[in-house]
Amino acid sequence: MKKILLVNGTLNDVPLVHAAHELGLYVITSGNDPTGEAHKYSDEYCKADYSDKEAILRIATELNVDAICSCGNDLCALSASYAAEKLGLPGHDSYLTSKVFHEKDEFKKITQNLKLSVPKSVSFNNQDSALDYIINATYPLIIKPTDLGGGKGVSVANNYEEAIVSVINAFTASKVKHIVIEQYIVGTQHCFICYIANKKVVFDYSSNDTSYINPYLVWTSSGYPADGYDKVREQIISDVEKIANAVDASDGILTVQYLMCNGQPYYLETMRRCLGNFHFSCISKDINVSFYEWYIASEAGMDCKQYWENVKFTNTTSGFIGIYANKNGLVKDIIIDSDFEKLVFQRYMFHEIGYEITNYLNEKLGNLLFSFKNREQRDYFMQKRHSLVKVVLE
Known about the structure:
- Helix 2 packs across helix 3 (74-87).
- The strands form 4 sheets. An 8-stranded antiparallel beta sheet has the order 13-12-9-10-11-14-18-16, sandwiched between helices. Strands 3-2-1-4 form a 4-stranded parallel beta sheet.
- By secondary structure, the chain is α+β, with helices and mostly antiparallel strands.
- Helix 1 links the parallel strand 1 and strand 2 (26-29).
- It has 13 helices and 19 strands.
């Protein structure tokens, strides 16, 4: 039986374990936390920090794995591509190419070189240089670490005084001590997900992304398709293929987050890893193909043609809502709108009643995955999305 190493093993990774088993693979999970939920379902657990690429290479070598799969984190994806390249395993970009897709400053460089629509940005690996730059900058600016996801260390500065605090916070949060300062563009946020084969997009999907309490963390997503996608689809596909050719991207899944502003898509970030919030479950619901299985097969270097050939978009439009509180406190109850709850097809809970929230901006209690019958029903519920799920605190 061929062995695959999942570079982490959290609740988010449980569907990946099941998908790998469906493909007949022996599954080894990793990560620093031996109590991770995915370890309960894997065949073996081997402790290693997913952000430590040398540690991942070491256990992949010792365990003689046949494939490596990155999970829902950019550092995880970098470690997976590094180890795969060193061991000559298929299914991944080279480490240098992976850095383009998972480090914000590298992505900005390649998109600017290709003259694509991206916010103007400058990267810094020295805090003093960044503080000098903001003296004469044009505001507002958005300042963020190059190596973190989930809105960690990200903030908007409307003036010089705010920018000083933002720069210091971003450098503090960044593990590699590298940040990006970029033009702040106001628009609607969306997600483009595709599969690339021979540098061509052979499957594409889009959704609307929105935030709530934390403006830099995706709280809800609803698709397919994203609003206005029909007007920009060909342009996005063309731009993604330009990027794929420029960096010699391998076959596999690729995601781009973009803002729509005045009818123009502005590319924010990209990644080639499993998405968080169980987003792949929603895509699977909409295309009638297991996107988790497709992803595992791709990361293992298998032939994936059968997956995109069998895609059949259903009439539903699925998405997710993250369960968050609007302040710190002890969770007393979670109230879900009764009409909305009927549309929930799956739920995952990270924390239950009685849990104490100490950082409400980043602590998620769980995810609700929903499926609407049509776009009209979707739009109705999304207009009242802030009242669909309420966390009651003591």
